[in-house]
Amino acid sequence: MSRTPDSPTLEADAAAADTRGWELSTAGQPLDPLRWRALLVIAIAQLMVVLDASIVNLALPSAKADLGISDADQQWIVTAYTLAFGGLLLLGGRIADYVGRKRMFIVGLLGFAGASALGGIAISAGLLFAARALQGGFAAMLAPAALSLITVTFHEPKERARAFGVYGAIAGGGAAIGLLLGGVLTEYFSWRWCLLVNVPIAIVAVALAVPFVRESRASGAAQYDVAGAVTVTAGLVSLVYGFTKAAPHSVTESAHWTEPSTLVWFGLALVMLVSFFVIETRVPNPLVPMRILLERNRGTSYLVSLIVGIGLFAMFLFLGLYLQVVLGYTPIVAGFAFLPFSAGIIVGAGLASQLLPRVGPKPLMVPGLLAGAAGLLFLSRLQPDSSYATHVLPAMIVLSLGMAFVFIPVSTTALHGIGHEDAGVGSALINTSQQVGGAVGTALLNTVAVAATTAYLAAHAGSGQSRQLVDAALTEGYTRAFLVGSGFLVAAAIVTLLMLKIGKNAVAEDDDVPLVHVA
Fold this sequence. Notes:
Number of domains: 1
Helix content: over 70%
Distance between the termini: 23 Å
CATH architecture: Up-down Bundle
């Protein structure tokens, strides 16, 4: 029987011809001679995606003033991106598996550049929110392709640990780098350049991806779970909008948690998310195969990523606002104030990648999560006149080092032993859990912060609206959000301690993921 050009057998033949003469791994698999150059390209793209979730945080006061965005709606600048990103990542990972990881990597880069340009020229809040959502949609194509390219390119355990070390450093430190870059661009150019800067970066990444990144895809028929993508995205948007509806919009209001209009959105979110999991158990090619999610160690890793996203991601938003609005820092000074966080993540990621094969993930993750919780708890003690050197800096260092000891083991454990067919969706689930957690956490903690601020102002209504009172009220809101975030990290530590069972020997094994190249 003749073979078609798309048959898995021909793909295997092409892969075999393409890899003759290559150095072999200890498991006898070919080692791509361009793998480190490919990692450089992937790192550039991943840095762009990660920092874009935070780069607008320091530009937020300027964008709010320019476009007339309210405090209650300010979180949409962040959550429009993270919601689209997290909601579509699973579909993006599955498309990358079957259409081609390199192809979707390049499509994602080009689309991301176009959406960034649209946001940079936005003339209204609605257009900016829409552009941010479009950015998130293309990031959902780009990010899982990037991570799964690492999975199918690096096979030696030490090399893979090093590659994930780079990825983890970017995943953790990119947010702080985005804050620094956002501060520089906002102060010396305009908040709009926080979006426009992605255009040249994406073009450079595409130019390097063409020669250095090899195409790979999963075999088998391509089937896409559109119903699953629609229900999960609708559920997440409803959940976040419910949090937005719950926030008070003036000092005369309290939080609207039990209002019918709020409960309707929470109810819709529940229906959509339950429907999503029902669909996943019935469709032939689900976005989230239960074999991935229900494997104990992988499922625990995804759950921990989700909880960490809820507790941690909003920290950048509120600390950036505290530094600029309360302490009066300029955007660039506030950006430099976040540099120790980035440095701590990079140093910690290097240590974690070295320790992981020796001690396993749990001895790193539990102390790391508790350290992160301690850092947020320290931030919850801030006052309107707190010193950066004595209050913000120590908390930032403890928090960053702790999180570095979480990001590396989570990524490695979540992808350990995963088959080639599920590399894309498995990679997407890591990012999905983080981004969904970040979106939900930002919306939830923004509501907590706004409610605490308005309650403080209402309690001191007779004092007049002085600058000191406003600063005290804003600080009350930010610190309340830090305190709640700290509780989520403690919960993540408990989940890790009780549920994670993978040991150091398993982490050190070669995962033996088949490499399929397509000429």
